[in-house]
């Protein structure tokens, strides 16, 4: 490494956030990047450990020590080559990945980990600024064609790899723009959508064809794809949202988080209200908002509600409150269970844990939510007698996760085998379904997961498709 004592000389420094008051008035990204000097210093903290667990902590197996060393030497162009060798879209992961690589950092055992995510983002952002990132069209064409269903991170990664291998790739997206969950489920203040547009333009220059507003299984049949393409990849995500099964949940003020977030992202993209909200406008303006679900989607609802001018925002989680700090001796190098506070929480939010919702109160409109506190005994959740309470509510947003892919249309027509959880059954070696010409990757195969896992699966699936079509593949796994 460039400076083997760097971790002894410098403490961890990360990107900062813009002023809360200012950022609540817009949907722009507000992360303040590190200076070039600070980046070099942070890269020097990478400690040349014998076994770099960050490699395996990262789902795409980023070669982190190598590009840290290159950043320390101010060689960003080669750092970008190393970064792109394992990750098609580091500007996505550098913004929205929770960074399991940092939890696995060897330095994290006794100190604060290397700021891997910030360095990753700085490398790729500089690459775009300097014009180093250009289309990589294949030198020759294979004559084979592949249909990719879904343009989220798995579908995009798979499509790009297959196009670079020389195949004719068409991506089918049921929405009017590409990007999947990244486009419509992640707020602009976490990741602005010009980043997706820029990658889509690169991919089009590499030969990828995007067909938007085309839902396979509805406007185009699966059989039609099988007749016109040599292979098909299902990368449609896990879109079946977990519902709230309590009295009053049918009231119009109880809505899915994805509907709420999608509407605002469409407004930010310039859509008029009819196009953004065909079922009617859904906003938190002037309302007491309750978000049910303590994960990232719930946090995104908090940030969006505050920007829309909610009177109050409360986030509920059924699980107990995690500890402030993990027990590293027990958890390292795995992702630890500990309390995490997002930038959206810091903007204003009441959070409560170990809460079970019991009943939504209201007539035509939501007025309140009845709850009870719970505890765990002998591994079972039990309500605590006398702990009932009621929260004022005008809007209740459900951010309780997803149960798997939607079955109607695509999967019903394909009739591929599902696993016991309702996901498309395919292993991580071949990614082949029960139909040997249909492959599956990302959340549609593994269930609700991270963007970085989707990119990994898309890349690996592309190699398997290439092997099936050509008998061998030079694509990396």
Structural commentary:
The chain is α/β, with parallel strands linked by helices and 477 residues long. The chain contains 21 helices and 18 strands. It has helices spanning 6-9, 20-23, 36-43, 54-57, 64-72, 76-84, 90-96, 100-104, 116-130, 153-164, 181-184, 194-205, 222-228, 257-268, 273-276, 296-308, 328-331, 343-346, 410-414, 443-446, 451-470, and strands at 16-17, 31-32, 145-149, 168-173, 209-212, 231-234, 240-241, 254-256, 288-292, 312-316, 350-352, 355-362, 366-377, 380-383, 389-392, 395-398, 402-404, 438-440. Strands 5-4-3-6-18 form a five-stranded parallel β-sheet, sandwiched between helices. A five-stranded parallel β-sheet has the order 8-16-9-10-11. The longest helix is centred in the C-terminal third of the chain and has 20 residues, at 451-470. The protein starts with 5 loop residues before the first helix and ends in a 7-residue tail after the last helix. The mean pLDDT is 96.
Alpha carbon gap, first and last residue: 26 Å
| Percentage of β-strand residues | 15-25%
Strand arrangement within the widest β-sheet reads 5-4-3-6-18
Uncertain runs: none
Described by the principal axes of the CA atoms, the overall outline is: globular
Helix content range of the residues, please? 25-40%
* Helical segment count: 21
Q: What is the number of strand segments?
A: 18
Our Rg estimate from Cα atoms comes to 23 Å
**Global structural class:** alpha/beta
Largest sheet: 5 strands, parallel
Mean pLDDT: 96
């Amino acid at each position: 490494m460039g400076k083997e004592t760097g971790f002894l000389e410098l403490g961890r420094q990360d990107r900062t956030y813009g002023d809360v008051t200012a950022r609540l008035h817009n949907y722009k990204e507000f992360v303040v990047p590190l200076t070039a000097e600070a980046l070099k210093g942070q890269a020097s903290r990478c400690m040349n450990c014998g076994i770099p667990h960050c490699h395996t902590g990262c789902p795409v197996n980023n070669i982190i020590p190598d590009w840290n060393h290159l950043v320390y030497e101010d060689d960003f162009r080669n750092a970008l080559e190393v970064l792109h060798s394992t990750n098609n879209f580091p500007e996505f992961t550098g913004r929205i990945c929770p960074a399991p690589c940092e939890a696995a950092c060897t330095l994290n055992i006794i100190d604060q980990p290397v700021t891997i995510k910030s360095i990753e983002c700085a490398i790729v952002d500089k690459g775009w600024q300097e014009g180093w990132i250009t289309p990589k069209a294949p030198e020759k064409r294979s004559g084979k064609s592949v249909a990719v269903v879904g343009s989220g991170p798995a579908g995009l990664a798979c499509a790009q790899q297959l196009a670079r291998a020389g195949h004719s790739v068409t991506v089918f997206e049921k929405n009017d723009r590409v990007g999947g969950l990244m486009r419509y489920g992640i707020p602009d203040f976490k990741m602005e959508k010009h980043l997706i547009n820029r990658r889509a333009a690169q991919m089009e220059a590499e030969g990828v064809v995007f067909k938007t507003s085309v839902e396979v299984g509805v406007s185009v049949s699966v059989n039609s794809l099988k007749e016109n393409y040599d292979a098909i990849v299902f990368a449609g995500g896990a879109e079946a949202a977990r519902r709230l099964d309590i009295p009053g949940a049918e009231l119009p003020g109880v809505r899915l988080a994805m509907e709420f977030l999608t509407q605002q992202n469409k407004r930010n993209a310039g859509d008029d209200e009819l196009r953004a909200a065909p079922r009617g406008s859904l906003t938190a303006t002037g309302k007491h908002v309750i978000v049910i679900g303590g994960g990232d989607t719930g946090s995104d609802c908090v940030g969006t509600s505050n920007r829309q001018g909610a009177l109050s925002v409360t986030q509920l989680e059924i699980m107990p409150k995690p500890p402030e700090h993990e027990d590293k001796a027990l958890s390292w190098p795995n992702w630890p269970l500990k309390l995490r506070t997002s930038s959206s929480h810091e903007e204003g939010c009441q959070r409560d844990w170990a809460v079970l919702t019991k009943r939504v109160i209201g007539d035509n409109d939501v007025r309140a939510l009845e709850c009870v506190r719970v505890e765990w005994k002998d591994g079972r959740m039990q309500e605590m007698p006398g702990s009932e309470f009621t929260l004022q509510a005008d809007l209740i947003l459900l951010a309780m996760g997803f149960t798997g892919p939607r079955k109607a249309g695509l999967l019903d027509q394909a009739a591929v085998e599902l696993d016991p959880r309702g996901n498309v059954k395919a292993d991580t070696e071949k990614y082949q379904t029960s139909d040997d010409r249909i492959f599956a990757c990302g959340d549609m195969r593994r269930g609700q997961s991270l963007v970085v896992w989707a990119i990994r699966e898309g890349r690996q699936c592309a190699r398997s498709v290439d092997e099936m079509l050509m008998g061998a593949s030079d694509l990396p796994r």
